[in-house]
């Protein structure tokens, strides 16, 4: 640590501090209210694969990192057991896989918006029925919205335990990657959550 501190001091101490405040984009919470959204775009893929991606632009969710609402929703959407979207689509021979969530990168989650995406890998038959596939996905999301999270604290606690186990028993990462991750966390989380804020769930708040 002494050596690292010495290097940092030598390299960065002569960089002048301009005294300017950190830029804030908090007033731009609806940046995607444009006609280009709410549309269907067909893209010819490079690989031979059929994929349906549905994307929502939401208000910024960074402030809710202790609750992680998008992680909770992606857990429900990505569930593969009985009664799930994927289970239904597989019975129809329309889909092979389904993923929902937010990558938590700067592009998908920042101070102006958060993106939530659901991506379905379609079969050839599913590609012929992609409107019906999209309809099923929206039906499921509508059902989640209608029922609300009030009765699902057990699921949230289950996710919390799994994430805690993964955190406590994770393999040692490359030191450079770890330092980079911590530096990023220092810009996003409270001091006591620098080590854990990007992985653990702390609070259950159904209203969020």
Automatic annotation (TrEMBL):
Gene Ontology MF terms: metal ion binding; metallopeptidase activity
Family matches, as InterPro entries: Metalloenz_LuxS/M16, Peptidase_M16, Peptidase_M16_C, Peptidase_M16_M
GO biological process: proteolysis
Domain annotation Peptidase M16 middle/third: ranges: 167-207
Signal sequence annotation: none
Alphabetic keyword roster: Hydrolase, Metal-binding, Metalloprotease, Protease, Zinc
Domain named Peptidase M16 C-terminal: residues: 2-151
Pfam families named among the record's database cross-references: Peptidase_M16_C, Peptidase_M16_M
Superkingdom of the source species: Eukaryota
Coiled coil: none
The keyword Zinc is annotated on this UniProt entry: yes
Family matches, as PANTHER family: INSULIN-DEGRADING ENZYME-RELATED, NARDILYSIN
Family to which the UniProt record says this protein belongs: Belongs to the peptidase M16 family.
Listed name of the protein: NRDC protein
Organism annotation: Aramus guarauna (Limpkin)
């Amino acid at each position: 640590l002494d050596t690292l501190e010495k290097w940092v001091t030598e390299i960065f101490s002569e960089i002048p501090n301009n005294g300017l405040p950190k830029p804030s984009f908090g007033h731009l919470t609806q940046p995607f209210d444009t006609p280009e959204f709410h549309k269907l775009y067909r893209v010819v893929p490079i690989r031979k694969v059929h994929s349906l991606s549905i994307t929502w632009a939401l208000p910024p969710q960074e402030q809710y990192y202790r609750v992680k609402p998008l992680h909770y929703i992606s857990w429900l959407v990505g569930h593969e057991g009985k009664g799930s979207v994927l289970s239904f689509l597989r019975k129809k021979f329309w889909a092979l896989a389904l993923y929902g969530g937010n990558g938590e990168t700067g592009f998908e989650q920042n101070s102006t918006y958060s993106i939530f995406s659901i991506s379905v890998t379609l079969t050839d038959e599913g590609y012929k029925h992609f409107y019906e596939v999209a309809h099923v996905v929206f039906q499921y999301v509508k059902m989640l919205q209608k029922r609300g999270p009030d009765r699902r604290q057990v699921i949230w606690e289950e996710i919390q335990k799994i994430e805690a186990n993964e955190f406590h028993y994770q393999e040692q990462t490359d030191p450079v990657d770890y330092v980079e991750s911590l530096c990023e966390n220092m810009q996003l989380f409270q001091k006591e959550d620098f080590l854990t804020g990007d992985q653990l769930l702390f609070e259950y708040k159904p209203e969020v």
